[in-house]
Amino acid sequence: MNASGGINQLSIISVTTAKQSNLKNLGSTYVNRDGATNINISSCRGLNGEDIMTDPVRMGIVGCSHACKDLHRPWLANMTDKFDVRALCDLNKELAESEAKEFGGNAVSEDSLESMLARDDIEVVAVWTKPPTTHYIVAKQVLAAGKDCWIEKPFAQTAEECDELLALAKKNGVNLFVHQNRRWDANYQKAKAIYDSGKLGVIDFVQVGFGPFSLDWGVHVIDQALRFGNGKLLQVYGWSPNSEDPEGRAASVDFIFERPPAVRIQFMPTSPATLDIQKFARFYLVGNASIKDGRKFDVVPTGEDWPDQAQMYRHLYAWMREDAPRPLDPIGARNAIYAADLMLKSARLKKSITPDKWMEEDDAPSVV
Fold first, then answer.
1. Regarding predicted confidence, which is higher, 250 or 64?
2. Quick one: pLDDT band at residue 279, thresholds 50, 70, 90?
3. pLDDT score recorded for residue 335
4. All domains of the chain, ordered by start, with CATH?
5. Do 238 and 320 meet the contact criterion of CB atoms below 8 Å apart?
6. Do 126 and 60 touch, CB atoms closer than 8 A?
7. Strand 148-152 with 124-127, pairing
8. Interatomic CA distance for residues 218 and 247, integer angstroms
9. What is the rounded distance in angstroms from the CA atom of residue 258 to the CA atom of residue 297?
10. In whole angstroms, what is the distance from residue 335 CA to residue 314 CA?
């Protein structure tokens, strides 16, 4: 504190973020560093509720419509100790300006993606553009600029596009994350806990149920289904009453892996009157061992399916700043795109498809 009673501004040359949990809580004291990176350090709680000091992740956002306004801003607005939104851009400049005002703080609108990528203070760019066909080209620019990139699902439109983005991230030494946030759905996590518990013995069969097929939403469901697989994907058999245009229709797909279980997705029709999804089991698991009531199966119903995105963002922050495991391996998101393509191809050809471009996830630890 200086002679006039104010708090001196402290200059910090470097911060070892992996060791931040060892630093003392400074209450409401903020330590600022002038310059391009403008690190703001404040007290908050870690993944386990411990008091730590944080260096907020400095973000840029591309795409300011539904995903930004309704899916991400409500969470990020309550996590300003961890995420500092610095810039937003959109083809609709008025929308970018409006969202910058909603975020407040350091957020401003940028005229272009190029001007955003030229800023040294932005370390990660979130790609939330619409339509989803734009994800690939925007993410490619972000990664080429040497920025970490977080991509809203779907990752891209084809496995080849995904592979190009994965290779570019590796080449430039930057992080790549795909928002497969439905891995944090309460009902999925409950089903996965049953699967991992062993109470059903060896799981022979898993069925995942959802509403009508769409590629945008379907990659979430396919991604969940693939998490139950064991080993390499060997066979894919897809079906739809209109294989040329399955969007919004009933459909199904069977996935056969090297080891049990076999996994089926049943995309179900909706009620024409209310558009509500008909009642069905969201997850149905069958094993080879009896449980207390003599059944060899367990059912997780629909409902409780909105993901805890705060949990996802906490893991993203811990990955970026605390040397914690990454939230997920982007290869899994890539495989969901590949499996969706095989499903539609199989439905068109009316025969099973043998995958030849399946990728095994690497050995680095992931949260989900």
1. 64
2. low
3. 97
4. 9-55 (no CATH), 56-179 (3.40.50.720), 183-309+334-349 (3.30.360.10)
5. no
6. yes
7. parallel
8. 10
9. 22
10. 25
Closest CA relative to residue 182, chosen from 214, 223, 154: 223
Q: What backbone torsions phi and psi does residue 86 show, to the nearest 5 degrees? A: -100, -35
**How is residue 230 written in tokens?**
């064991």
